[in-house]
Amino acid sequence: MNSFWLHPSLLFILGSLLIPLIPARAKRFYLLLVPFLVFARVITMSKGTFGELNFLEWTLIFGRVDALSQVFGYIMSLMAILGTLYGLHVKQDGQHIAAWVYVGGSIGAIYAGDFLTLFLFWEIMAFSSVFLVWYRGRKESLWAGYRYLLVHVAGGLALLGGMVMHCTAAGSWEFTQLDVQNPTPATWLILVGFILNAAVPPLHAWLPDAYGEATFNGSVFLCAFTTKTAVYALCRGFPGMDILVPLGVIMALYGVVYAVLENDCRRLLAYHIISQVGYMVAGVGLGTQMAINGACAHAFAHILYKGLLFMGCGAVLHMTGESKFTELGGLWKKMPWTFVFTLIGGLSISAFPLFSGFVSKSMIVAAGFEEHKLWVGFLLMLASAGTFLHTGLKVPYFIWFGKNQPRKETFDRATEPPWNMNVAMAIASVLCIFIGCYTPYLYQMLPFPSVAADYAKTVYSSYHISETLQILLFTGLGFFLLLKKLTPEPTISLDMDWFYRIGGRAFSWIARGPVQTLDTFVGELYRYAGLIPLMITARIAGMFDNVVIDGLVDGLASGVRGVGRRFRIAQRGQMQENLALAFGVTALLIIAFIFYWSKS
Amino acid sequence: MKLATLIEFLRARLKLVIRISIAALVLLVLWDTFLVDKEHAHTDAERFWGFWSFFGFFGCVAIILASKWFGHSGIMKREDYYDE
């Protein structure tokens, strides 16, 4: 079958390059047009394998469109519309370019059918998203960005190493389910690369570090794509990998514990990404059809409500310049709508009945109970209580109510955000409620729709509603009774980034201290013990040289020069040829990809 | 601005709001005890009246106390901790 296949990432990546050329009057229109085109392209793609490209002896597959990739492609392109709308008034073109290339990388990784293509887009994501941190322009964001990049480069190397080992052994670069029952070192390396992007402890500290430091709209993008692309990759490669179950449960609780301690609202939300992705990772580890459905559904719902929460807190940061609970409070008079939108995000993440989390999260918990892993079910339930405690209660309470009063200039500055931010939040809110109320919308998209349709019959059973409401409302009671204990403190919490932040400092201390002292010492030693005797020897050698060697050497040198000249003409310039070939192939690959209308 | 008026209205009647909330909690437990079909419960413990209420409340208290203990055991540092 011959057909034209346009890669949705291409629209984003090419479209981003044109942003600086678009006149200012048409820019807002253009910024909305491209994400809409991508979304339209994604929802009209038929299933199958497209965009195959033979490169050297490998076959690259740019378009594997199936149920699993479609559910992620759908929600990511939808989120790209909302994220762009939210930041529509941002004047820096660079931010829009970075965001679009980042989304393009993410969507490219989702549709990649082989490891090489996956890796290509995986790295595009890391190197473009870091700009969303750097554009904040603070000294702290510069360093946070570098740390983010370093960690992701390390993860990328693990992934690349694992891929090369795996594909050499398997004889194919195709990215399919790996043998999770008998993992090889290659499997483990690939897993490390994936779970680093999924922010599984202890490889998670980059996430709150970077997401708390990014621009107000950058975090809206960041929170949606990196971890969820990793969840997709895990769903594809590692369903049923046992170790992911305990790792996921630990994640779910780890994020909750750190959220109690956190004073910065966006870092708190970042810790809750870790917690929520924990549900998905556990779902992948359980590996049943219900659990994989749950992981996908929760990723879908999560992208929307977490995006919404980051929009709400981003709006507060954008309008007041503050994101710390100790500097905020009592904003309900100034930003009531932002409060309502954030609350809807909070109720969705907490899985309140009629909100999106209720129909997605419970699928994973139910899969755990069904597999008779009671501890998984109960511990994930406990994490649900923690989720409501922080995102549903702590965030809204300490920003919009609470006893804290912000400084007068912060309070005076606070007002509702521009219309585009409000509209983006409103659409996300409506979608969160729509998903919770009308289950077929999401359930029909899942990889195993019939299993999901069965589950849909019980999701709104009285038992499930009663169970959830009891946990959440009594968590609320606990919150208000222990409110004093929860009063935010102006502190930061040490996390795994301590090791490389202090480790880096130790390295530079060693370089500056002991190594430099040693260097000076050796220099001095050399001067006294080496240089003075050397000068004496040199003088003697010089005399010998003048008399004996010169005659001999002059003849030799002219001989060598002559041979060299002849060689230079004969040489084929291998180095340059290789370089030219490498550049040529890369350019060809890019051109082929850019103007890619391929045969399926 | 109507939204802010509504919030103000509720804040002015905080005691009433609290009473309604407590009544809702009591009703919820009563509903769970007498009316909810517990056939789908995963374990026997869940058939105990208001099981998930206790779970939610004590879970919440445990999370707060354990996390704060953990934080104050040396994890929470001054904000300029990493500054040189």
State the main characteristics.
heterodimer; A: 600 residues; mainly alpha; 2 domains; two-stranded antiparallel ribbon; 3 strands; globular; B: 84 residues; 3 helices; 68% helix; flat
What does this protein look like?
The complex is a heterodimer of chains A (600) and B (84). Chain A has 600 residues and is mainly alpha-helical. The model of chain A has no long low-confidence stretch (mean pLDDT 87). Helices cover 74% and strands 3% of the residues of chain A. Chain A has a two-stranded antiparallel sheet with strand order 1-2. Chain A starts with 7 loop residues before the first helix and ends in a 6-residue tail after the last helix. In chain A, a hairpin with a 2-residue loop joins β1 (48-55) and β2. The longest helix of chain A is centred in the last third of the chain and has 57 residues, at 514-570. Chain A folds into two domains: 8-238, no CATH class; 240-493, no CATH class. Chain B has three helices and one strand; from the N terminus they run αααβ. With 84 residues, chain B is mostly helical. Chain B is 68% helix and 4% strand. Chain B has one domain (2-37, 49-75). Chain B has helices at 2-12, 14-34, 51-75; one strand at residues 76-78. The N and C termini of chain B lie far apart (46 Å). The chains are: A mainly alpha (600), B mainly alpha (84). The interface between A and B is large, with 48 and 51 residues. β3 of chain A pairs antiparallel with β1 of chain B.
